[in-house]
Every structure is written in structure tokens, then in C-alpha cells.
Amino acid sequence: MDLAAPLCVVGAGQSGILTAAKLRDLGFENIDVLEAGPRLGGYCQTVEVDGDVFDFQSHLVIQQSFGADTAGTAIGELLRDHSVPTKTETLYFVGRSESGTPQPAVPPHFLPLFQSLTPEQAIDQLVEAWNIIEQAVRDRHAPGPSGLAFDRIPGETWETYRARHAPLVGEVLQGLAIYANMRRPRQPAETIVNINAHICGHVSQLAKLVLSLYSPHKQALLARMPQSLVAQLSSRRPVSVSFDGGFVSFLRRIAEDHRLTVQVDSRVTRIEPVPRQGVRVTYSVHGEQRSALYSRVVVTARPAQVREMFPAGDIHDVFAERNCPRAWTRSYLIRVREERVAFPRRTDSAEPLGFWVIDPYGSYTDTDPEQAMHRITAANKQNPGPYWVCFSNSDTSISDAQAWSLAKESLFLFDDPELVAETIAEWPAYPSAAAVREGWYERVADIQGHNGIYFVGEILSGPTAECISSFVHDMIPQWFEAGPQPKS
Known about the structure:
- This protein is of the alpha/beta class.
- The chain is built from 17 helices and 21 strands.
- The chain has helices at 14-25, 74-81, 111-116, 119-139, 158-163, 167-178, 203-213, 218-222, 227-232, 247-257, 303-309, 314-318, 400-410, 433-437, 440-447, 458-461, 465-480, and strands at residues 7-10, 31-34, 45-49, 52-56, 86-91, 94-96, 102-104, 191-193, 200-202, 240-243, 262-263, 266-274, 278-285, 288-294, 296-299, 328-335, 355-358, 376-380, 387-394, 418-426, 453-455.
- Strand 1 (7-10), helix 1 (14-25) and strand 2 (31-34) form a beta-alpha-beta unit.
């Protein structure tokens, strides 16, 4: 393969920067990175308030439990090769007590199941799910962009998949089956992803919760678990990692270390193959139309942007709105006076450590728009202190005032939260439930590399930096190292 051949990466968010960096690692010399916004970072937005840095949209490096550190993970390699100051964040689930006050709680989507099971049934079903996952890892079922196959029957619906398992097993494995593309072979076996993608948890975390709920039965319940699951219960690996300078500072460091030049304010408007010449990319810079020919193009844009770049044809049809509906989220940065739950403190600060707060009475949001609700679902505190980064699922059909009113209603952890900053962006970047059932991911796999055009991004890899970096780590070498030439 000609390492001097011109390549284009569309988008300078985390998918685009990591893709361009991997191409540089492979030896490619001529890489253009085109970003529509005024700076690299894509949907990542970093805000500074009184000297503290907070991230909007992208800030979760890890939503899985990796152990004492991030060794063996794709993001761990990036952190090793591009050292920047980081902070560990801890995960807690919080719900309302009968009196309405906040209290530590079981993850809300598992609450009805735990209420219907005895402690022994809950542990036995978690063990069954654990064993299925471990077997899939040992057999290396469908490693790569399709994730793990588990025991899913091709073509079956989510509903029938869950129905033929015990309730808790079905809930755990259903999330993995639906978001199997997020499950990279390098990630740990206990990772689970909730169906609505709001919560990332672990079989081991659920086991810990059962043990805490039924502490008098702890030893008897532990005896029912395999040693590999028991070993995970003592894991102290970070659930998430944030950056002192914000996530964008990490992306900048990667770009600098790989000598990447990002052409900002360069909005790609059209991508079209030119027979025997390559791929023509047309883009706008301050209203001026430009175009260039490339040997290959990697698109990291979201579905709505992909539809604009490919106004007709197979690619447009795959990413059509009926398959990838548009939704929106507002992200709030709020200031609070006091906390109503006593969480752990860091040794160098009297303020609590960062954590996720999941409201069990908040929204359920699938990628089917009619199931979306305008409720806040999570809060994340990045630093000790009075500022909090909060996320809400919403859309542009309601006013800012209405959106903030709905958000405050669910922020039951805080008295009189003060809105400091707000941003809104298209979300989520996932295919609809119907599209997944009809083989959407398989359709994308079929068009990868056709006419030298490839697709990377969270819609394929999952939203966390570990998912995205693992996808890039695995797939870019397969596509771009010496081998078959682009399909035409």
C-alpha cells in the first residue's frame, strides 16, 4: 500500500483524532483531518469555571471495571503513550427512599427484577449470565466489529432473546446482545450494557449489590459463585477517568504527538467516488467551496451529517432517518449549595469524590423517538467542589425554561441547583431498535470499504473512549495495512 497516498478523515472528535493517529502509526504520511467546528473535539465541549474544568458530552473514558489500573485496555495504551493528568471517578447508584430523600440504591432498571427474586435466585441467575459471557470469551465468538455472538439466534428479536432466559439473565445478556458492537475482545468479561444505554454496570457490581442487600446471607451467597466472579468483587479499578484539562486537552495531546494538522471550520458537504481516481471530498471553508481527491476516506460524522454528505444511494439509505432517528440532549453545568447524601471524601479535600447519580424515576430513552422522555437521567461530578455536570435527554420541541424546569424536578439530590452553563447537541448516535433487529450493523459491515469509503464512530463502536479506541485499534489496521485494495 502506498503510504504517501492522500487520506482524509472527516471529523476531529475522538473517533476522528484516534483514527488519524492510528493511520499515522501505520506509516501514512499524507492525512487531512477536516473538522466542521472551530476547534478539534467534535461534540466534546470543555468549560472552565473558577479554575475548574468540566466536560460536556464526552468525558467518560471508561465505563467498565478494568481492575487495579487500565492495563491491557486500548485507552490504557493511549494514556501510557500520551500522558496527561487524570482523575478517577467512582460509581454509585442513588434512588429515592419512601420519604423522598436520596439513598444508595440498586440500579433502577434491575430494581423490579430483584424485588421478584430471592437472594439465591438473584445470585444463581447472575452466575448463569457470567458463565455464558465467560464461555463466549473463551470461544472468541464473533470477535471484531460484531462483538460477541453469545447464544443469540440470528434474526431473533430482543424480546424473544430475553424471554428464553431467566429474567435477570435475560436482562443482562439482552443488553450485551443489542450493544454487542460495544463489547470489544480486549474488554473484561463482566461488562454489561443496559438496553437503554443510560447505565453501564457489571455482573460483579450487581453481585456486590445483592450481597449488600442481604448481608446476613453473604457467606452462603458467595459460596454459590465461581471463583472468577468472586475475584472480581474485590476489583478497585476506576469506573471512569476524567482529565484535569478536560477531554479535549487529551485529544490535542494525541494530535500533537502524531503531528496531525486539523483543518477547522471545514464542513464536508459531499463525498463521492471518482472512477479510477479515488474519492472526491467537497467542503466549505468560510463560505468558499473547495474539493480534493483522496485514495481513501474515513467518515466519523453522525448519521444526520452522513445523510448530507451522501444525498442518495446505498450509504444514504443505510443512515436514513428511519434507521437512525435524530434526538437531542441538553447538558447542564449546575452549582449546588450542599449534598444530601454522604459520599466518600478524597484525602486532600473535604468535598465528595465524583460520581454518577441515576434517578430511578427519570427517563427511559430508547432510540425510538416515541419512547423518549424529557427527564434528567444522570449527574457527574468531575472535581471536589460545588460544580456538577448534569445530563438530560430532551429535544428542541420544548423551550429552554421548560427543559430546565424538568431537569430541576429530577435533581432531588440537591436543593435549589443554580444553572451555570448549558449546551445542546444531537443525541444519541445509534440506530433505532427496529433497524438493529433488521440487521443494520450487518448492512454497515457490507458497505465498509466500498469505493474506498469507511465509517468509524460511536454509532458503530459505542460511546465511551475505551469502546471507540478499541474499535479504531482493531479495525483501522485491518482496513489499511497491506492487503486487498478498496472495493469498487
